Amino acid sequence: MTAPVQSTAPGEIGSARKRSEDARLITGRTQWTDNIQLPGMCHVAFLRSPYAHARITRVDVEAAKGQPGVIAVFSGQDFADEQGSLPCAWPVTEDIIIPAHPALAVSEVRHVGEAVACVVARDRYAAADALESIDVDYEPLEPVLDMEEALREGSPVVHSEHGTNRSYQWVFENGDLDAAFRDAPVVLERRYVQQRLIPAAMEPRAVVCEPFGDEFRLWSATQIPHVLRVMLAMVTGIAEHQIRVIAPDVGGGFGSKLQVYAEEVLCLLLARRLGRPVKWTESRSEGTMATHHGRDQIQRLTLAAERDGRIRGLKVDLLADMGAYLMLVTPGIPLLGAFMFNGIYKMDAYSFTCTGVFTTKTPTDAYRGAGRPEATYAIERLMDELAAEVGLDPIEVRRRNWIRHEEFPYDTIAGLTYDSGNYEAATERAQILFEYDRLRAEQADRRDRGDPVQLGIGVSTFTEMCGLAPSRVLGSLSYGAGGWEHASVRMLPTGKVEVVTGSSAHGQGHETAWAQIAADALGVPFEDIRVLHGDTQVAPKGMDTYGSRSLAVGGIALHNACLKVVDKARTVAAHLLEAAEQDIEFEGGRFSVRGVRDQAKTMQEVALAVFAAHDLPDGVEPSLDSDATFDPDDFSFPHGTHLCAAEVDTETGFVRLRSYVAVDDVGKVVNPLIVEGQVHGGLAQGIAQALYEEAVYDEAGNLTTTTLADYLVPSAADLPAFTTDRTESPATTNPLGVKGVGEAGTIASTPAVVNAIVDALRPHGVHDVPMPCTPERVWLAITQGAGGGLGSTSGGNP
Amino acid sequence: MPRVKVEVDGVTYEDDVEPRLLLIHYLRDRLGKVGTPIGCDTTNCGACTVLLDGMSVKSCSVLAVQADGHQVVTVEGLGIGGELHPMQRAFHQEHALQCGFCTPGMIMASIDLLRDNADPTDEEVREGLEGNLCRCTGYQNIVRAVRAAAEEMRQAPEREAAS
């Protein structure tokens, strides 16, 4: 018997490991899709519609074909027979209208930026030049830009063959709403607009496709290599086993790369038609029009409550802008909010109606939080309005309504079962860190003094559902796929470990966190574990990364796969130690006979013995590998209390965030460093919605925020420092007790910021400021009172 | 076509280039220096930041011909003898990156920032990096990293020589 090779110290899970993926990212040794160069590769550029809505009457590509360096030029007509329709995998109702969506427009364009023709050339400059020589005749049609107008009789119609701009209506009701509203002492009616946002991952999208033997290798800056492969096969008819999709290093997604895009389908078809590799890389200004947008809802909310602040019931009526087409999960996004408008609160009745509306704008789809930020914004804004109405502190009105920690598990009015949480603890911790009472005193003092710079305090006590998702729940919502995740573990002969995960990371740090999980379960050193992902040939099964699902679903699949390896290894170890299997203990990477600690085999020794296979028990395969697929029984429900202090200059409307405290409860934590980073980044995006970002269309349907000079992704100078902390209520729905964290910061922070601004301005008669709360809008609200005279009737804020 | 002679990360290259060729495309497409990415087309994001004769520039707004006779350092050329530059190390230590796409530009801009101000406050770091966008981190750990690197570089200024 040899000495153990090495065993890891207990407790990789919970340690703030520095990330292993950093090594290549800080030295520039990355493989972004746009880095890929292949022999004979050509470059693709797309000509895009300058019209929001128009009939295509002629496309002349002949002149472009003669341009220097040009290999081929195609119009939509050239692919009409083979491009199929871009997929929508979430038909939320039986009578939903899902219009045909050609990758390259054939007869009509329905948003600015829709692709109508493409050039394939020897380099990117030649391709871009030749676009100028394509001649397209358009017959302009009426744009459809305002959701409320779009539903009126006589409105121009985006898809004339369907005769209406209404895609679907989806309803959820629970409890007796009439009773809740009958003689209610307090009834609040509010209309909030969730402005349209542009996800703006730092890496623009890119696609490379190479025909290789009888397979097509397709690299894409995507969050979903597995889903994309299935969908490409279904859309193009190319057999699934002949498509290999690779997501190499991917520079952020935030939902925008959870999509099956026209350019992915077309690069595959171009590679097939030309028989050579092709590459397309999006420019930023192109991407703002061609990559899906997020949010864009009009929320009509009615809340009934008692005079003491207790909620009776809530009625939600949404208009959700689908944009011009339904993309992969477009119609389902607002419905993810259906289960969240009640937040952390108890009430007797709830109804939710969502109408999906077509407009001639870029399609919407998932953007960080996807449906839950919109819902959380609504309820958290309403709670502050309720507090003001009944004369309570906003935290007190929440306390009177929230689920108390001893009430978990709790069946909510929206039909979910929250498994765990402690809203009291998170709120108490946040109040201490924030110095809540001191800031309230300062606020009172500034009000008394008539200080031109008023102080506002914004509260957001949020929860969210994440870890998409139990497959049976997705099935009941008519979603086109399941919500499981897959992992496999391979013990190599030298004791090193390959972990394969179907969850495809693009900044989340899976290579580190997954190694931590495997190190603990297998008892091998962190450094001996390699995590493989993002290639359908290497990681053949997966449902990919979105909805804060990776850890709570994929991490559990990995944990379970590791346990299977340990079980197999135990059988072999027992044989080698000549002991009964039930007498074998496993700890710290060592299998030992109970009571005889010095007789042991390490996991590495067992791996080598299995590889040699000289002396295995009868019936045991010479393989120390395993697979596991995990399908959760339920979602996980992170929660937290966020407090924001905003100074509002009442003379200029300028808002300065003075302090921001986030206390999040994401259950057990695998890597606190990564968790804190996710919270920081989430806060930045949520604050950006509150203060800076909006995709703006002009009256003709042109997107006017096509660059990062117009679309204000905040810089370091635009954001405050954050104070973060955690409470820990382990999830009960998975063996590691973990919850998701990827979207929590974004979901919580938007209402915290707007609540702070409105709180600062209540003495001025202000009860709303539309987002983004620019100095102009804040100033208008102050000078005009109430909602600042900005009761917008359009889909966007004025 | 004009001919340019440019030193990039210690190697001198001579090439005929189209007058309109951007430095970033020269680096990426002609020299294979793909460690520096492109994040936008309007000089707003800073992902393509490199050092030109020691000063940070957005290489999407410099023509390759303007780099003729000059020295370029990209993120690939930082550090000496396999050792990371203190700024690279600090970004790793402080978890100042997630997807890492903005990181090469952010690191180069931060190095230039410290050249002007060896001991910046949080606010000065935030103002100084205003031209570099990150969508993942919320900047807090980037600020921490830059200040940590500043501290280290003040104590051992010779290690900075690589850039």
UniProtKB/TrEMBL annotation, chain A:
Pfam families in UniProt: Ald_Xan_dh_C, MoCoBD_1, MoCoBD_2
Ranges for domain Aldehyde oxidase/xanthine dehydrogenase a/b hammerhead: 27-142
Regions crossing the membrane: none
InterPro entries per UniProt: Ald_Oxase/Xan_DH_a/b, Ald_Oxase/Xan_DH_a/b_sf, Ald_Oxase/xanthine_DH-like, AldOxase/xan_DH_MoCoBD1, AldOxase/xan_DH_MoCoBD2, AldOxase/xan_DH_Mopterin-bd_sf
Key words, A-Z: Molybdenum, Oxidoreductase
Region (Disordered): 1-20
SMART domains for this protein: Ald_Xan_dh_C (SM01008)
Cited PANTHER family: ALDEHYDE OXIDASE 1-RELATED, XANTHINE DEHYDROGENASE
Protein name: Xanthine dehydrogenase family protein molybdopterin-binding subunit
Organism: Actinomadura alba
UniProtKB/TrEMBL annotation, chain B:
PROSITE patterns, A to Z: 2FE2S_FER_2 (PS51085)
Stored SUPFAM superfamilies: 2Fe-2S ferredoxin-like, CO dehydrogenase ISP C-domain like
Entry-linked Gene3D superfamilies: 3.10.20.30, [2Fe-2S]-binding domain (1.10.150.120)
TM ranges: none
Keyword annotations of the record: 2Fe-2S, Iron, Iron-sulfur, Metal-binding, Oxidoreductase
Statement: the UniProt record of this protein carries the keyword Cytoplasm: no
2Fe-2S ferredoxin-type domain span: 2-78
Stated name of the protein: (2Fe-2S)-binding protein
